[in-house]
What does this fold into?
Amino acid sequence: GAGVSQTPSNKVTEKGKYVELRCDPISGHTALYWYRQSLGQGPEFLIYFQGTGAADDSGLPNDRFFAVRPEGSVSTLKIQRTERGDSAVYLCASSSEGTSTNEQFFGPGTRLTVL
Amino acid sequence: AQSVTQLGSHVSVSEGALVLLRCNYSSSVPPYLFWYVQYPNQGLQLLLKYTTGATLVKGINGFEAEFKKSETSFHLTKPSAHMSDAAEYFCAVSEDYKLSFGAGTTVTVRA
It folds into this structure.
């Protein structure tokens, strides 16, 4: 079956621009997560959706970052006024439920480069 | 907050040799622990997980890990390395629904 997909795979933008990153989770998965992976680091949690609502956005670094999941399936991570420090791989994951023991299935990521 | 520390950012092994990747965790509650593998330009793939029960956990591709509460460790092993094991490996601990990852260990396999 289809896994988690993310588009685009690569995004190059200029400092100050707005970007949107898309995630298509596995069909039927109610839980969706965004992580950010900087070079040489492990992924860091950004936000968790249960259904349509953001149940935990404590990992978003500042108010330039925002994410939505309006119909409980596809999610979009939005970054305003991008900065060079936002350059990273943004990973999306989904799971059947948002619990501690459920496996999270990861997409291939979007590599964002801010020039 | 829970956290993990992976000892060694790079490990080089000969094909057929033992693979040992170290992970120590910090947790105030019984932890749920995971090992993920990341191949170049691919998403993270679950190798194995420990939730409760048997402390020796077997995963895919011949990997296994042992949960040792007294040592707060969850080291990953494979008896005989294969060229296809070259990848980056991440240990993670689950707190509620979110994963906290270590910095990762890159494995290279020498022919």
Observations:
- The radius of gyration of chain A is 13 Å.
- The mean pLDDT of chain A is 94.
